[in-house]
Amino acid sequence: MAIHIVLVEPEIPPNTGNIARTAAATDSVLHLVKPLGFSLDEKSLRRAGLDYWPYVRLEVHESLEEFLEKYDGRRMWLSTTKGDKLYTEADFSDEDMILFGRETAGLPKDFIEARREWAIRIPMSSDTRLRSFNLSNAANIVLFEALRQLGFPGLE
């Protein structure tokens, strides 16, 4: 049983390191879709994940197209500020995949439009000038809702 966290073209090493740590702590699978904005052996990436890296179930994909081909037919939730549905309205299932886009641009607009019914968002104040939540915070928020719905499988 696992939820899959998919980072499409992540750019900031500490965000990915923090998400890797969360993936290890929750026995979730972490997917990184290239191009990456850093090297996987980069010091800041490893520092953020500390000693958790050996426990990360990691898959690296050469492109979004390769990832989609490999996981064709799987349920994929798109975490985006452009989602019509709140993340709490998603009905998560075992082995679902939750996709997050680049820190500076999110997921590609045409990708979201083609899968609009799977687009979910975290509510934010409309009075703020912020574009979105920090990637690692957003991943934690949505992941833990999915895990909550599944009864926190395998977690104490």
Q: Can you give keywords for this protein?
A:
alpha/beta, seven-stranded parallel sheet
Strand order in space, largest sheet: 3-2-1-6-4-7-5
What percent of the residues sit in helical stretches (DSSP H or I)?
25-40%
Q: What form results from the Cα inertia axes?
A: globular
Number of helices: 5
Q: Whole-number radius of gyration?
A: 15 Å
Structural class: alpha/beta
Order of helices and strands: EHEHEHEEEHEH
Which CATH-level-2 architecture? 3-Layer(aba) Sandwich
Mean pLDDT figure: 91
N-end to C-end Cα span: 15 Å
CATH H-level superfamily = SPOUT methyltransferase, trefoil knot domain
* Tally of domains: 1
Short description:
31% of the residues lie in helices and 18% in strands.
Describe the structure.
Helix 2 links the parallel strand 2 and strand 3 (57-61). It is built from five helices and seven strands; from the N terminus they run E-H-E-H-E-H-E-E-E-H-E-H. The chain has one domain (4-149): SPOUT methyltransferase, trefoil knot domain (Alpha/beta knot, 3-Layer(aba) Sandwich). With 156 residues, it is of the alpha/beta class. The radius of gyration is 15 Å and the shape is globular. Helix 1 (13-26) runs parallel beside helix 2 (43-49) and helix 1 (13-26) packs parallel to helix 5 (135-149). The chain has a seven-stranded parallel beta sheet with strand order 3-2-1-6-4-7-5. It has helices at 13-26, 43-49, 64-70, 109-114, 135-149; strands at 4-8, 29-33, 57-61, 76-79, 85-86, 97-100, 119-121.
